[in-house]
Amino acid sequence: MMKTYLSIFLLIVFSALSILHFYWANGGSWGFAEALPTDANGKRLLNPSALESAIVGTGLMLFGIYYLLQSGLVLSLPTWTFFKIIGWIIPGIFLLRAIGDFKFIGIFKPPLETAFAKADLYFYSPLCLLIALLGFLIIRPND
After folding, report:
1. Phi, psi at residue 90, to the nearest 5°?
2. Which residue ranges make up each domain of the chain?
C-alpha cells in the first residue's frame, strides 16, 4: 500500500515538472531564469531551446507514466526485466543530479550567490534527493 502512495506522489511531481517544461517549450518564462545554472558572474551555463525543453518534458511525463503503472491503480506493470531496470535508472538519474557536477549544480557545489545556486540548495537538490529516495523505496523488494 505504501508503494502505491509513493508512486502516486511521484506521478504528481513528474506531472507538475513535465507541465512546467512544456510551458517553457511554448514560450513561457515564469521560473525559467531561476531554473538554469549560472556562473558567479551570472552568465547562463545552459541555453535550452524549445525543442530541448519539450524533450525533457516528454521524458518527465514518461517517468510519471512509469510511476502511474507502478502504483497498480490503472494497469499492472509487467514484470519484464526492462521495467525493473527502468525502476533503478529513474531514481539513479535524480541521485546523480542531486550530487551534481561539483562546480555549479548539486549538493557538493561550492557556495555561490546566484539565484539558481540558492534555488538549487534549498529546492532543486533536495527535491532530486527525495525523488531518488522514494524511487529506490518503491523498487525495494517486498519483505
Report:
1. -60, -55
2. 1-139
